[in-house]
Amino acid sequence: MPVESIDYIEAQDDYIAICANGKIYLKKQSLAEAEAQLDSHLFVRVHRSYLINLTRLESIEKKGRDGHAARLRGGKLVPVSRSGYERIAEAM
User: Fold this and answer.
1) Homologous superfamily in CATH for domain 3-91
2) Looking at residue 28, what is its pLDDT?
3) pTM score of the predicted model
4) Distance, CA of 51 to CA of 84 (rounded, Å)
């Protein structure tokens, strides 16, 4: 699968869920390992459990008083931490 087709990657215990083209692929790997292998200009860690592909980002939405969420193409909402919000701002 081409890296460009990945929407986001989610940590799930000892695995990562790679979400691409409407499908989910599980791989036994840590999110930190995946992050180290991917282009940091294309993929940003927005939460302790999520990496997103910036080319799939549609908007950042306010959630609650202090929270944010990233809306990706296709409508998926991914939580964004405070430090993740700063990383997105730096990358844009």
Assistant:
1) LytTr DNA-binding domain (2.40.50.1020)
2) 98
3) 0.93
4) 9
